[in-house]
């Protein structure tokens, strides 16, 4: 058994038996010497963030995105920094709340990380109890005619994957129907004025941009990430699946066409003069989504693997610094903006780790053992 496979087996065994939960200070697993280059860069990025990141305790969407990527790192490399379970436990596996907006998608983002802990490491019902209740309450609200909760494109990634996974896990057509209803509003809106532009194959960030030429990189990254995660869990014969697949493929075709020659995508996808230059969070989500499409056999490898190769090269050789810091991450915002070489954030690192997970599957000698 190779060092890498043995390390992966030990890490997963420890996780499944509760080895990630410890009262002593958590120590990162030793890095196997034979990790492939993709895995090494994933570990480097994850280690830098947990040692140098900011606001690490919050259960908000930024940290949720990081921890989803962090668990993808563990599953891909067998190396754990033992941070996600303590983070989730410290937050009591709860979602954020606000009585004035009880189903705000950003507040549901942590649920995806809790679901990953539950699914791959600790199948204990309390881990997803709060998420289950929130989704059940939202399903009931949707059934009463309230369908506009996902009224900005980021909301697709913050909430939709959890709806899909719980719908399948709990064999709940009602949950999947509510997800479809909410997605239909985001996509089509009222009288066809939704956030998805059929003409371009891209998403506007929210209603304030409909009809404009402003298509935000990370906003579209959230969308393709959400669709990728939903397609991973929905059965092939699910009647809702064809529309998600159609939009995913249309997005992929446009993204291929507008990728920069250096492998990045611009902050503003169709306007290179609006904050032109590298932007790594959108680039990471696009690389993740398109690589997933190839791995799943829904995108042609000959057509799209060069897109992934260029995207990963840009991320891992220019955005990722020698010390593991991921730069060129656009700050939090609702529109395209400047991305600086040293600009980093939890969601950018999480997206990079998700991209690495799918790129590793495409890389000979790098994919984790089944």
From TrEMBL:
For this protein, the parts annotated as crossing the membrane are none
User: Keywords on this record?
Assistant: Hydrolase, Signal
* N-terminal signal peptide: 1-28
**Pfam families from the UniProt entry:** Glyco_hydro_88 (PF07470)
Key word Signal present: yes
Source species, domain of life: Bacteria
Q: Identify this protein by name.
A: Glycosyl Hydrolase Family 88
Q: What is the lineage of its organism?
A: Bacteria, Bacillati, Actinomycetota, Actinomycetes, Pseudonocardiales
């Amino acid at each position: 058994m190779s060092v890498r496979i043995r390390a992966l087996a030990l890490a997963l065994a420890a996780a499944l038996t509760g080895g990630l939960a410890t009262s002593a200070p958590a120590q990162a697993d030793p890095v196997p010497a034979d990790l492939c280059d993709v895995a090494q860069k994933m570990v480097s990025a994850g280690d830098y963030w947990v040692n140098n990141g900011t606001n690490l305790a919050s259960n908000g969407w930024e940290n949720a995105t990081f921890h989803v990527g962090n668990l993808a790192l563990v599953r891909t490399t067998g190396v754990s920094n033992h941070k996600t379970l303590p983070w989730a436990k410290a937050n009591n596996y709860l979602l954020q709340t606000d009585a004035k907006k009880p189903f705000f998608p950003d507040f549901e983002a942590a649920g995806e990380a809790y679901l990953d802990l539950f699914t791959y490491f600790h199948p204990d019902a309390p881990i997803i109890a709060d998420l289950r209740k929130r989704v059940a309450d939202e399903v009931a609200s949707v059934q009463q005619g309230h369908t506009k909760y996902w009224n900005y494109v980021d909301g697709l990634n913050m909430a939709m994957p959890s709806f899909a996974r719980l719908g399948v896990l709990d064999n709940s057509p009602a949950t999947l129907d509510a997800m479809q209803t909410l997605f239909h509003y985001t996509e089509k809106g009222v009288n066809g004025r939704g956030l998805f532009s059929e003409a371009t194959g891209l998403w506007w960030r929210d209603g304030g941009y409909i009809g404009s030429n402003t298509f935000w990189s990370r906003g579209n990254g959230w969308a393709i990430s959400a669709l990728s995660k939903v397609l991973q869990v929905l059965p092939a014969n699910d009647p809702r699946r064809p529309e998600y697949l159609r939009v995913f493929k249309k997005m992929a075709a446009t993204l291929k066409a507008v990728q920069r020659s250096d492998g990045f995508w611009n902050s503003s996808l169709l306007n290179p003069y609006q904050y032109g230059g590298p932007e790594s969070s959108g680039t990471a989500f696009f690389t993740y989504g398109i690589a997933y499409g190839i791995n799943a056999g829904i995108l042609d490898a000959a057509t799209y693997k060069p897109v992934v190769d260029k995207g990963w090269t840009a991320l891992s050789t220019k955005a990722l610094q020698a010390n593991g810091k991921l730069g060129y991450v656009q700050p939090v915002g609702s529109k395209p903006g400047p991305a600086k070489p040293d600009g980093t954030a939890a969601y950018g690192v999480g997206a990079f780790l998700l991209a690495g997970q799918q790129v590793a599957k495409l890389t000979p000698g790098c994919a984790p053992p089944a």
